[in-house]
Amino acid sequence: MKDRNVSVDRKFGHMVRTATQSHIELKPHYGPEDVKGISYEADRGNPGEYPFTRGLYPDMYRDRLWLKSFIVSYSTPEETNEAFRKYIANGMTDLRLLADLPTQSGIDPDHPFAWNSMMCGGVATYALPVYDRMLEGVPMENVVCELAHSSISNFIYFYSLLVALMENRGLDITQLRGNSINDPVRAKLVYASPDFPTNIARRVCLDHIEYSVRHTPKWRPFAPNGVDPCQGGMDAVRELGGCLAVATAICSDLTERGISIDDYGAMVFSLDAESDFFETIAKFRAARMMWAKLAREKLGAKTKKAMQLKIGIRTSGLSLQSQKPLNNAARVTLQILSCVMGGVNSLDASSIDEAIGLPSYEARVFNLDTQHIITHEANVPLVADPLAGSYYLEWLTSKLEKRVNTYLDEVEARGGIFECLESGWLNGIMEENRLRIQREKADGKRLIVGVNAFQDEGEEGPINGAIRGVAYKAPPETLREERVREVKAFKEGRDQEELKRSLKQLYDDTKDGQNVTRPIIDAAKTGATLGEVTGVIRLAYGIPYDPFEQMDTPTYVHQSLEDLK
Amino acid sequence: MHKDRKIRILIAKIGCDIHERGALTLLYTFRDAGMEAIYTGRYQTPEAVATAAIDEDVDIIALSDHTGSMPIIAASVLEELKKRNVEDIRIMTGGLISIDDAKVLDEMGVWGNYAPGTPLDVIVEHVKTLVQGNK
């Protein structure tokens, strides 16, 4: 009988940290003396009032709930269209569009380099007819669309497809709503995007913004992204600091084009909802406050709108684990809760099966339902900024503000965010923090349940096993072959003369420093593909057509630039 | 192979997959474990990876991919190694690899196919075993 005795370890599972995820050291408790320096009027304000720390609207979520979104992009436009319809029926209010990985690199499916990742992570949206199929039957005037791609060529091209599609369907393009991330720093820092070097990316980014401000005022053509740098290793301070620095740099560029921050209107940041609950909430509050102060004091904003920061969220994909995937339900639920308590405007929550494959339908409906439960059963959004006044949270919000300001000063002293990118300094600090986190995990100073602590002994149970079984699978080679044949046939079936003229126009306008958005919209209507648009812009800058230098300039592209000289 | 020779390992990413954190994590893990680890960076071709493996005289190529296409990618690298008559270079993989994909890879002779979050010492041990078996 002796060996059936168990021993209880009172210390089992005890905390191993005293600092937040971003290494902000914490005391065991906070009190009035910790928040003494904070001015309610200057640093917080009521919800709906400058500096909007407590939220953008007086009635916050009673007025409008956050938009519920996910990236929906499966291997084919038909599957993706079907998915959009199902999720909209379940309460999705914001359509995040993406493309497969070759497209995000700036190449078409028939490029020799595309094969290994073709139709992975999304649709190969190489040309307008694919968008038409993908968005068939989806209303385009009253829906919010977000372009969540990685590279700058993608944002201007897919924005152009949306405009072209609306024009072709006889719709009013001023009713186009949503945003493009269109962040040239994130494109290089995190993705090393091969489509354009940074100087071209920055120009194309500005062309997209300028055209949109003048023609599609409800579209936010720029949403500095902290999510991906954060997933790449940046902490909350550098994530937020990076967004503020990029937004400042781009707003200054726009002034040179005659667009003031008041012309531009509300700013959108794409931020990361990380696992550290209070730090994440404090980050959202600090983000709104810091943008409002920066817009008014440094960028000369006069209108309320220009001081308002909208926050779009992607919850941390990196926090999800393939071990005991059921636990991801707890992670995502806490992240969603931090978003609602932090007053965000749109929310793309990761799915419990995302560490295993593309999210399945059921896992995503679970995400929507979690948000409905938080709203209707837990009553969380009834009151704006419900944690305001907490000594700890207020202290943490101000602490983040101070740290971010120190970081911004450092970036400024190094010549600004673009200089920090080009010099490799940004990459260096991202790597440094990534390594620090890796070592903490290895040393047991940062516990991830099921991964480096509380691992399962023995066989996996049926619930976790089922989650593992449902994740979406990458397309087989037969489907990829079919896609390549389709692209080749599409390219041959176009009116070659029309196409050549539109590519030539794009080439000339790129060279002449004209805004390239309208020529891209017109080219898209003649069937010009993403790879062709990217290649022609590259040629106009005197660099090879193909970002990977695996293929020559196609004959018809070469001819269009030569013949029409 | 000389007894004191450090294990040489090439971490490689092929195609347009952008997810890099796993590759970078292993780069430092292998170095910390006393190996010579080299990373190709993203956006590589199977040809370039095979060539780099020969030029760097590596024992193992560790392929990283998060698109779900690992069987296709591993097959393309195996073919390139075969063309160059260096089939003694072993391949292992990591990333978004389903249980079914791992079975396919095993059958192809690709041993050690790891999902995200696998304990790093398990991977390091596997590398050592793979190289020893190769001697």
Q: Care to describe what's here?
A:
The complex is a heterodimer of chains A (565) and B (135). Chain A has 565 residues and is α/β, with parallel strands linked by helices. Chain A is 50% helix and 6% strand. Chain A has helices at 40-44, 60-63, 77-89, 101-105, 128-134, 152-168, 184-189, 198-215, 227-232, 236-256, 261-264, 277-297, 304-307, 327-341, 361-376, 391-413, 417-422, 425-442, 462-470, 477-492, 496-512, 517-525, 530-540, 555-563, and strands spanning 67-71, 94-97, 144-147, 177-180, 219-220, 267-273, 309-315, 346-348. An eight-stranded parallel beta sheet of chain A has the order 5-4-3-2-1-8-7-6. In chain A, strand 7 (309-315), helix 14 and strand 8 (346-348) form a beta-alpha-beta unit. The longest helix of chain A is centred in the last third of the chain and has 23 residues, at 391-413. The model of chain A has no long low-confidence stretch (mean pLDDT 95). By secondary structure, chain B is of the alpha/beta class. Chain B contains five helices and five strands; from the N terminus they run E-H-E-H-E-H-E-H-E-H. A five-stranded parallel beta sheet of chain B has the order 2-1-3-4-5, with helices on both faces. Chain B is globular and about 35 Å long.
Give a quick precis of the structure.
The complex is a heterodimer of chains A (565) and B (135). Chain A has 565 residues and is of the alpha/beta class.
What topology emerges from the helices and strands here?
The complex is a heterodimer of chains A (565) and B (135).
Chain A: H1 40-44, H2 60-63, E1 67-71, H3 77-89, E2 94-97, H4 101-105, H5 128-134, E3 144-147, H6 152-168, E4 177-180, H7 184-189, H8 198-215, E5 219-220, H9 227-232, H10 236-256, H11 261-264, E6 267-273, H12 277-297, H13 304-307, E7 309-315, H14 327-341, E8 346-348, H15 361-376, H16 391-413, H17 417-422, H18 425-442, H19 462-470, H20 477-492, H21 496-512, H22 517-525, H23 530-540, H24 555-563
Parallel strand pairs in A: 1-2, 1-8, 2-3, 3-4, 4-5, 6-7, 7-8
Helix pairs in contact in A: 3-5, 6-8, 6-22, 10-12, 10-16, 12-14, 12-16, 14-15, 21-22, 21-23, 21-24
Chain B: E1 8-12, H1 21-32, E2 36-39, H2 46-55, E3 60-65, H3 70-83, E4 90-95, H4 99-107, E5 113-114, H5 120-133
Helix pairs in contact in B: 2-3
